[in-house]
Amino acid sequence: MTIAPAPVALFSHDNHSPLLDLLRPHLPRSLPLYSTLQTPGQPIAVYATFPPGAEAGGEEGRRRIPWLILADLGNQLRFFCSYEAKTALSEAERSEGEELVGRALRLYLLEHHGGRDRISIGAIPDIWTSCIERFFNTKPFSNSEIHYLLPHDVAESLPVNGSTKGGIVLPGGVVETQGREEDVAEILSTSEVPHPPAYIATRLPYTTVLRSVDSSTASSTDSTAVSTPSSILAHCTTHRDGSIGTLHVSSSHRQRGLGALVLRTRISRMFSPAEAPRHVEPEWRSAAAFCYVHADNLASNALMRKVGMRKSDWEVWWARVKLPLEA
């Protein structure tokens, strides 16, 4: 006799702190969703298969195992299923997890498509790719590995030679600044992902740009003595889910270590008080700096190793889903 799957229900969660507490023991596997929930200043709809207040269990409203949490970033869903924390799943657990993941995501998109004609499901762990294909009739693409750096692995500060009117002078006579409005076009032109210009504009405070500076003035301690030029040597951005992307080094300035320098500088800024989300306990703000790197991108994988990042032992995928779904 075939046993029908247990019904799936979704509950809205406005308070993300209890969910972060629930996800924290499962780092780094829960990192994509954990980091997403820390995004400051961004409206994110968050739902779970248990009601608010049931995160810690208890006789009233005890959550069912397995459980799932999902976040809606507007153009993309992120989720975490508790079975992902296990290093190995039995056949029964995998089947139960696939039913929960597929049915919960489908239920959410049926009820909350919001007039959208499509959406992405991102950072899908490799154990759920087959159920995403089965429930949504779409094949996940772009298998990537997560490279991450935990807080205690990050140096508290970077060597600084002096300040300029527009930024900080780093070793090698390079000026580091935030992104500027005039940088948006160049960032978009070098990105493999077609981001909308308005999105990149919102990420400029979380973008690190390296620019050239005259060596004769690079050591000046007078903050008004050096003006920062507009030409970009290298840049990278922390996306609203906390991942670092759009990393690019100008073709005429490669083989100088600028890729590692811009990445290390961006990581340092992520762990600074200025960028840390205020609603998370200090020791858990920016639980890790991380990047999604395609498995076949040898150069980027080598760069991650160079800066000391750890590589995940699992892959994540993306899927595009057409909306509205048929009930």
TrEMBL record:
<dbReference type="GO" id="GO:0016747">
    <property type="term" value="F:acyltransferase activity, transferring groups other than amino-acyl groups"/>
</dbReference>
<protein>
    <submittedName>
        <fullName>GCN5-related N-acetyltransferase (GNAT)</fullName>
    </submittedName>
</protein>
<dbReference type="InterPro" id="IPR016181">
    <property type="entry name" value="Acyl_CoA_acyltransferase"/>
</dbReference>
<keyword id="KW-0808">Transferase</keyword>
<dbReference type="InterPro" id="IPR000182">
    <property type="entry name" value="GNAT_dom"/>
</dbReference>
<feature type="domain" description="N-acetyltransferase">
    <location>
        <begin position="174"/>
        <end position="326"/>
    </location>
</feature>
<dbReference type="InterPro" id="IPR053225">
    <property type="entry name" value="Acyl-CoA_N-acyltransferase"/>
</dbReference>
